[in-house]
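LOG
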Amino acid sequence: MTIASRVLSIALSAIVLSLPALPASAADKPIKVGVSAGPYGDILREAARLSEKEGLKAEIIEFTDWNQPNAALQAGDIDLNNFQHRFYLANQSKARGYKLAALDESILVPAGIFSRKYKKASEIPDGARIAIPNDPTNAARALLLFEKAGLLKLKPNTGLSATILDVAENPNKLQIAEIDAAQLPRSLDDVAAAFVSSNYAYLAGLPLSTALVAETEVTEAKPYFTLIFAAREDRKDEANLKKFIAIYRSQPVKDFILAKFKGSILPAW
């Protein structure tokens, strides 16, 4: 056994010893974890690989629509999901009557404003079209970042409740298009700039370092790009779910994130 293997074994053993034993039926049945398509699934698959060594099988299920993972969780089709920040979860739960609980934090996924046509936000011309996500919380994130870029000014104290109706000043008369988040990278051929979340930016080959403005520069926005695990309220304390999350939040998975994503995605622990 190599030194690295010994370290991995010791780290995972410490996690497992600190958790309650699983019933045999729970240990044999894979847990199903939902995630949006993209790099978040790569991290979950690494955690699943490690958890299987500890007797817990996990199946990672990718969804292409941000509405699907919470619907599937509420319906009992999956056991956990990991794709959203707590504000998105709260918004969907309120709007759709879901009984879902926010659990531990997983990763930091700062988004950015990207452009294929301009190198600086200040180069975007009058009357240009920009794009933001069409879901409420992420639309607000985008508007805050466009404000940070100096292109818009929002009404005071709107924060994560901001909508395009809260744009108080639009000196360049920009046209704001609301587009499904998964389609925003493709929109870059047709718009001057777009807000793109980290998973879709990664899939589209858009490093955060190339963004006109990155969310990392808006320190107060940190809670809005920290992802969390979610489970149904009536299942949030189940031992197998806690065990998987603990293995995910281990040093070996942290090392995997840092090596693979080189700062575009960061561990939240």
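LOG (cont.) second protein
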Amino acid sequence: MRLILLIIVFSFFESLMVSAQKPYILILGTAQDGGFPQAGCTKECCRSVWENKIPHQGVSSLALVDPISNEKWIFDATPDFPEQLHLLNDYTKSATPLDGIFLTHAHIGHYTGLMHLGREVMGSGKMKVFAMPKMKDFLENNGPWSQLVKIQNIEIQRIEEAEVIVLNERIKVMPFRVPHRDEFSETVGYKIMTKDKSMIFIPDIDKWQKWDKNLVDVVKKHDVLLLDGTFYKDGEIARPMSEVPHPFITETVELLSDLPKNEKNKVKFIHLNHTNPILQPKSKERMDLRMKGFAWVETGQKIEL
């Protein structure tokens, strides 16, 4: 009996050790480009944050961490880069430099944090920045980003659609194009792959119907999906929402409504606009979303890969 108990205890601690060595995602931010609260907003949705009644939420960003090699990468360099880098370093108990930054596109919430790598702040040396061809061209030919390239604060790694980027023996990353307002660059999502799991990250897309992939099939093929949840429903902002097209959370939920619960549980919403009721801790929309089998991400949340 005692031997059986020892075996059980040993197996438990062994599983904990294995789990602790797996690559993982750390959520660094959950909000749309303007953050939460958003500049100039005095409406009820932001008032509670200004009054410190509910937490501030940084702009949508992820960290990918390999605890074995102690490598760490960030997906999207946001205006909240200082706080997010601190969160990552504090969580990992390591202030070693990032091993790279993956960019999705050239909208303000997704790349402007690169400014902190310049000589005015960190003065980084050849920080690897993974960017699609148009994004690379945009950074190299427009100031102040071009200065980062010129004085080698950053070293842009050109990537291509569907190119598998091997980060190390445990982790691979693949960009894929998605339809979005591509004024200055392409827009991509990323597939992050380990030997155990695959994850999809799409913070921005116009509408699922415009994509050349079937979202239902994509959900079935992957283990975790962090999807564009910018707006909860139509009419959420006081201007034509066609100017800023995104799939409403209500549309995504309806599109995936026939999936079994274990498939729905894979889907977590990110990139939430300040008007989105999912940001409000006690909203009925949160409760309804959870009841339907879906979720949202929280800053500081760990997702094991």
